């Protein structure tokens, strides 16, 4: 790796670390971080495949209250580095990513604990009206989250490829195989959690239709993606047209009712005139 690649990798690592607490640009997601690392190292295909596989694992990972989810930023960056630099398989990359995510979880808890100090300092500066100092407290806190991923990434980059390969080969097959199986189970569990959260009854037929197509056709993932896009567009068009029809019907009903009321009022006036 040349110096430009090293700088870019560290930059992506820092952005991913900050993204893990900002959650806006989703730069910490495996599909984004792994793809960027693969692009920098000249192997986008491996980055996308590994990122997509890890993304399926991380679908159900989220911070709930004080419970911290495993860290996807550290796992994505370092596992992609190791897979591409040492030419290991995607399965071994998944086995590496699982303990890295757990280590990143401990690191982010440690960093967030330190950040509490800067939060209280920000409160003090707010009472004094020092707004620029409050901004610096935010910058320092984000910088610590960036360093949380950049420093381990820098250590991995500093190690020689042969040393990394030696460490990976020294891991017993029982452990790596077990982690690969566990990673596959996590993929299924994460996807199931997402489906439960997106429990929309009117969309379930499309979900079942996808399984039928997968079982009885030879569609690849590109074909399924195109089919899903077409069905989504059709669903939106039908829903939009249905809403328009209902709105027109309601408008027509209101107009008829108003016309009926006007006719009744006119008849009443005519009857009053005749009585007079």
TrEMBL record:
Biased composition (Low complexity): 249-265
PROSITE patterns with a match to the protein in the record: PTS_EIIC_TYPE_4 (PS51106)
Keywords, alphabetical: Cell membrane, Membrane, Phosphotransferase system, Sugar transport, Transmembrane, Transmembrane helix, Transport
InterPro entries in the cross-refs: GatZ_KbaZ_carbometab, PTS_IIC_man
Location relative to the cell: Cell membrane
Annotated Acidic residues bias: 266-276
GO biological process: phosphoenolpyruvate-dependent sugar phosphotransferase system
GO cellular component: plasma membrane
Disordered as annotated region, ranges: 249-276
Transmembrane segments: 6-22, 31-54, 60-84, 96-119, 139-159, 171-194, 206-236
Membrane topology (UniProt): Multi-pass membrane protein
NCBIfam families tied to this protein: EII-Sor, PRK15065.1
PANTHER family: N-ACETYLGALACTOSAMINE PERMEASE II COMPONENT-RELATED (PTHR32502), PTS SYSTEM MANNOSE-SPECIFIC EIIC COMPONENT (PTHR32502:SF4)
Protein name: Pts system mannose-specific iic component
Species this protein is from: Liquorilactobacillus sucicola DSM 21376 = JCM 15457
């Amino acid at each position: 790796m040349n110096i430009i690649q090293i700088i870019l990798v560290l930059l992506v690592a820092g952005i991913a670390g900050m993204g893990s607490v900002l959650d806006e640009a989703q730069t910490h997601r495996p599909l984004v971080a792994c793809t960027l690392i693969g692009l920098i190292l000249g192997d986008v295909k491996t980055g996308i495949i590994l990122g997509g596989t890890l993304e399926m694992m991380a679908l159900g990972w989220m911070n709930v209250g004080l419970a911290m989810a495993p860290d996807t930023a550290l796992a994505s960056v370092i596992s992609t580095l190791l897979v591409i630099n040492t030419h290991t398989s995607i399965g071994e990359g998944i086995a590496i990513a699982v303990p890295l995510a757990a280590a990143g979880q401990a690191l982010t808890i440690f960093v967030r604990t330190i950040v509490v100090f800067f939060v209280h300092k920000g409160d003090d500066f707010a009472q004094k009206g020092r707004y620029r100092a409050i901004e610096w407290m935010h910058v320092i806190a984000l910088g610590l989250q960036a360093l949380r991923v950049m420093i381990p990434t820098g250590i991995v980059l500093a190690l020689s490829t042969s040393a990394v390969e030696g460490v990976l080969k020294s891991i017993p097959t029982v452990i790596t195989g077990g982690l690969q199986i566990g990673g596959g189970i996590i993929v299924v569990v994460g996807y199931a959690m997402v489906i439960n959260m997106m429990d929309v009854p009117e969309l379930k037929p499309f979900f079942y239709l996808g399984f039928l197509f997968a079982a009885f056709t030879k569609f690849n993932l590109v074909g399924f993606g195109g089919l899903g896009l077409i069905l989504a567009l059709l669903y939106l068009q039908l829903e939009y047209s249905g809403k328009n029809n209902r709105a027109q019907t309601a408008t027509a009903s209101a107009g008829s009712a108003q016309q009926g009321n006007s006719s009744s009022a006119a008849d009443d006036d005519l009857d009053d005139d005749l009585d007079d």
